[in-house]
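Below is a filled-in request sheet from our internal design queue. Each sheet records the structural input a requester submitted and the sequence that came back. We keep these sheets so that new team members can see what a complete request looks like end to end.

REQUESTER: design group, bay 2
PRIORITY: normal
MODE: inverse folding
CHAIN LENGTH: 440
BACKBONE (tokenized):
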């Protein structure tokens, strides 16, 4: 039975990889499919939902309800829901949105094809479908690819629902990851975003020790890999050898995304982050000593239960002193069944949460502008992502797609190829973006 399926991905890059894996299976069995289409094409729409925090959950529910309305209008026949939201709230969703034809969770979406084939009484050779899907290089991001090296998390930070949704840490076998990257390089992909729920724990479950440094060194050794960028590191028990690998391998980006969340010992303890203020500061110092010029991206949280103005001032002083190259921040959102939701009162009023978030982001805007201004006149390697009107839009090795700074190159005086690398000289800086000319 040939189906045409629209796949809609909500949430993070890890969810995107699940959608890509699902579409690799659709490709293997010969279904037609579209990813995040502007208009619907098929008889079935699959929504891969996000269940991380309040806003993301609402967005996913709204997407499902929109599709239900379109189903009522006859635009599609069936709606399948998968991912983190349905993994977490399956029974509630089933009761509240009966218009949805099938619910899958975070992992059992792998049964979807078998379910579809079984219902049409056709004996799909699933082992063959899975084998073909594993050989596929289908991905949705063009000249770069997200590589998810593990699923789940063992950390149990007090505010986080991810371990409840994804379960314990499960590393992908190293050879699987290396094979996938070799196949993608043959397919013309040269930039790889390495992602996980918790990057630095890689290997502990499978090899009984942290193997992230070894894995990244092996990825860097694959011919044709131009950029490898690391995301979602965790500060406690940080594998210091990873810093040597970043320093010694030119194609491992001088970049590390490491969520710190806070700095006051009071907050770090209440958040169950298993690290102290002094240890955090020492780690950042070590990173900058071991990898000169490393670009540090972090995530900070304000308004966690019990956060005093003094705690928040410590966070502001820390941000001012450290000067993160990239920083994202969000206000605490109470998540069901987390330690914090069960044991702490969500006692910081929303207006204070918002005020602290605004003050922290305003400070980071100043810092970002100051740091980017220092790059004017420098020449760096960039990759071109797209053209938008009069500009080619690119990134340096210190910029991850969709979250970090972009480089704007005038299209009037340049003919550039998407996905290609160039040397560019920075001519102007703004708060979060740079302008440059190609160095001919
Ligand atoms: S390390 Fe990250 S994913 Fe794991 S519990 Fe903490 S915040 Fe959540």
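RETURNED SEQUENCE:
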């Amino acid at each position: 039975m040939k189906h045409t399926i629209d796949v809609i991905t909500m949430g993070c890059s890890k969810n995107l990889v699940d959608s890509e894996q699902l579409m690799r299976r659709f490709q293997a069995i010969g279904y037609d499919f579209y990813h995040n289409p502007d208009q619907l094409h098929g008889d079935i729409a699959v929504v891969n939902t996000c269940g991380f925090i309040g806003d993301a959950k609402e967005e996913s529910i709204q997407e499902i309800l929109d599709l239900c309305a379109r189903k009522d209008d006859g635009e599609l026949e069936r709606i399948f829901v998968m991912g983190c939201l349905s993994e977490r709230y399956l029974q509630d969703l089933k009761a509240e949105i009966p218009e949805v034809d099938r619910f899958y969770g975070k992992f059992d979406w792998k049964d979807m094809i078998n379910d579809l084939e079984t219902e049409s009484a056709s004996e799909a050779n699933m082992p063959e479908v899975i084998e073909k899907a594993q050989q596929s290089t289908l991905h949705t991001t063009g000249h770069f690819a997200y590589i998810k090296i593990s699923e789940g998390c063992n950390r149990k930070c007090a505010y986080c629902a991810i371990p409840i949704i994804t379960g314990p840490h499960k590393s992908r076998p190293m050879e699987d990851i290396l094979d996938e990257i070799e196949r993608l390089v043959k397919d013309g992909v040269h930039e790889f975003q390495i992602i996980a729920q918790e990057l630095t724990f890689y290997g502990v479950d499978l090899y009984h020790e942290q193997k992230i440094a070894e894995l990244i060194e092996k990825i860097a050794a694959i011919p044709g890999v131009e950029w490898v960028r690391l995301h979602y590191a965790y500060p406690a028990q940080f594998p210091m050898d990873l810093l040597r690998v970043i320093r010694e391998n030119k194609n491992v980006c001088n970049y590390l995304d490491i969520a710190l969340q806070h700095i006051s010992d009071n907050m770090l303890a209440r958040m169950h982050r298993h690290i102290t203020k002094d240890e955090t500061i020492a780690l950042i110092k070590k990173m900058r000593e071991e990898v000169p010029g490393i670009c540090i991206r972090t995530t900070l949280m304000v308004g966690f239960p019990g956060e005093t103005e003094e705690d928040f001032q410590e966070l502001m002083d820390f941000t001012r002193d450290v000067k993160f190259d990239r920083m994202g921040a969000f206000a605490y959102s109470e998540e069901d069944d987390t330690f914090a939701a069960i044991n702490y009162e969500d006692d910081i009023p929303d207006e204070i949460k918002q005020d602290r978030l605004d003050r922290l982001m305003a400070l980071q805007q100043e810092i970002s502008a100051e740091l980017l201004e220092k790059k004017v006149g420098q020449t760096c390697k960039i990759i071109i992502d797209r053209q938008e009107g009069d500009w080619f839009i690119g990134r340096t090795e210190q910029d991850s797609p969709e979250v970090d700074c972009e480089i704007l190159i005038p299209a009037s005086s340049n003919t550039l190829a998407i996905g290609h690398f160039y040397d560019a000289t920075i001519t102007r800086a703004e708060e979060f973006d740079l302008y440059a000319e190609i160095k001919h």
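SHEET NOTES:
- The chain has a mean pLDDT of 95.
- The chain has three domains: 4-134, 139-373, 379-438.
FILED BY: M.R.
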